[in-house]
Request: fold
Amino acid sequence: MRSDSTGSPDRVGERAPGADPLVTRREISQRAGISRETVTIWQGRHADFPRPEADGGMERFRLSEVLAWLADRPVPKAQRRAGEPDGITYADRVRRAARPSVDKGTGAGGQQRRQLQLQADGTTAEEMLTEIFGPLGRRIRGGGSGAAYLHFVLGLLFLRHRDPGSWAGLRDDVRVATDDQSDPRQLMSGIGRRVDAARRAQGLPSAPEAAAGTFSALGGPAVEDVGQLTRLCEALPPKMFRDLLSRYDLWARPDGRSSTTPRSLVNLVTTLFVKSGDRVRVHDPYVRAGELLVGAREAGGSGELSAAGPDPDMCRLAEIGVNLSDGRVRLTPGSETPWRDAPGPLADLVLTNPPFNATSARRSDEHWLFGPPPPGNDNYAWLQHVLASLTPDGRAAVLMPNRAAASDDPREQFIRQRMIETGAVEFVVALPRRLFATTRVAVMLWGLRAPGAARDDVLFVEVRGPGPMLGNQRVLTEAEIDAVAACRQLWQDQAGGTADLAEAMGQAGAARVVPNAQITRLGYSLDPADHLAPAVSPAVSPGCTARIPPPPATALAGPTRAARIADKKVAGIVLRSGDTAAGDDTAASDLPDGWSRAVLRDLCAIQAGPSNQVIKKLRSTTADGIAVVLPRDLRDRRVRTSSPQRVSRAGAAGLARFALWEDDILFVRTGSVGPVARVGAAEVGWLLGTNLMRLRAYEGVDPGYLLALLSSRPAQEWITRRSESATAIPSISTTTLGSLPALWPPPAEQRRIGAVLADFDDQIAAHRALADAAEGLRADVTDHLVAGLLMTGTLSEEPR
Reply:
């Protein structure tokens, strides 16, 4: 495709694999099947349209940003081409135009070329997952079940990596079906037969003829959609199995029994329990889609894998997942009550995520290690079944709902007592809410071992904090997982005291080793909240002196002094009436001497923040990332945040045009439109956030006056009226804000106005700091007073 520029022709077509190409308006229009003028209109009308970059004298756009924006724009029915299905988006068109037709070659070179083409087109694995579980997926699913669509996607992934010859035949089938516009159900049924044959060839026993029937139950998509999904799956590596499961849970919201274990939770479990090269037998008695077993394989475990599960369809997925991780699993039919089944071989390691709070009746022929659990809840039936499945030196990781750790049912309390007394409980980790896509229930990870010699204590860990989110789902970070692992290692080595555990956890949460005697006093509670929460009365260690808060006069001396200085500066401000009052209808001749009329764009350069898709793609959880200013960080006309959002340093290099300088003015452009702030020295080099604008004063314009102008009530009212009439969500474009009427005083008067208002802002900040310090001191004094560690009085009551 030719470029608008006469520069180097390799701008798009020959960029290195993995690069994010730049495209011109003409290239966007040609790929999307629209006129070039339409692209220009979109850019001018929509504030969130991707921002162009200067490249060789031409304005070009990041292809990934264009695709993300076009993904929300369906092609109108009147403009759809022959064969294009309902719901097709302009992003679909761009991707199809960028990819070659299905390659007839069957060699590895042809497959590699196709994968590199996907990368060169700027399509990342994240974007492919978004397309697979987006409008394309909904069209292919039709009236079928979400589970059937998941089987279809994973069946394609399996066939792609386990039967290259059959995959080459599938590409031919797709080409012929597309050319003939044949019934897509025939194509999907043929894909099912190929998957079934590949499963038999790989020795996967579960329901060997199930794929063809499952795939034919899907809806009636256009044959081009099936071809598009085939091309996407061709570019996915086998290790995308767990990512596909996680994205499916977010997309289909299956019920709790057929949902899967979130990837970050699997990473936590395998980090704690699986060592590379371990040749131990791993078993999962409620296998779901095999994500824990696949995680064990990917973590380096090389021992025998076995599993049981009540859902044959999920077991088929587990077989595929383990096979794609180059392992084999021995699957046996399972049930919702495996404690009633014949016992199987004992395992060295059990990893499982059983159904939470399930119910079943109790029978007289059931055998229990510590006694029958109540019939209204199977949590302790699962815990005892897991313990009964372990070898004498075996270990287990079991995910449990929070209520199991401190339930007040006497039968469950007795079982907890016996588990503690026999050393079956090693540790309990309390985890944040919303880790699962299908439920907000908070869960805990129980670390168990085969009952035997009692240990004198239990490790309790709590992961705290908001943490990163994937949509509405909380994700555990590597730092949080590593912190929990470090605490467990310290506890196993008996080398860590309370201070060591606190250092290991850092900001991730809290940890403590609790003697069994203390657990007994708390009614055998295994809830970390009962053992990690501060006591009502602060404890003082023997031989140590409690830290007594300083007197208020001492503790608040610094903030009080700063507030007095700020008060004195404001008290020295002299205000007098001006000679004229300038309004919108005031003639130029009636303005104060040296003043003139302008609009905001005459005073400053206005830059909108990057798109949210770009920031999300580059988001980082590491402390060394580059901070991004968000609307919530603008307080009292300053940037104030203790935990800024960050992006990776490598990613920030491509966002240099959004970097902040000292004295830049920030403005909230979407949502709660209007708040402003001045960038200080501490925020230099930070990045402009998505819903903000940056105003950079031109030569001869004082930034303090620019801040004053935007924060004035007339300007705020003008902004509010125009933002609320724009869209359903209040917003304002750079063009509209640039038309804000402004009066432009002489430079000396600008500086005086900015300086006076800066003194007011300093006063506000100083008094707010004093109030915060007083609030903190009160909380500290309260804790000591109610614990009897302080006695109170006033100066008038002190002895003379």
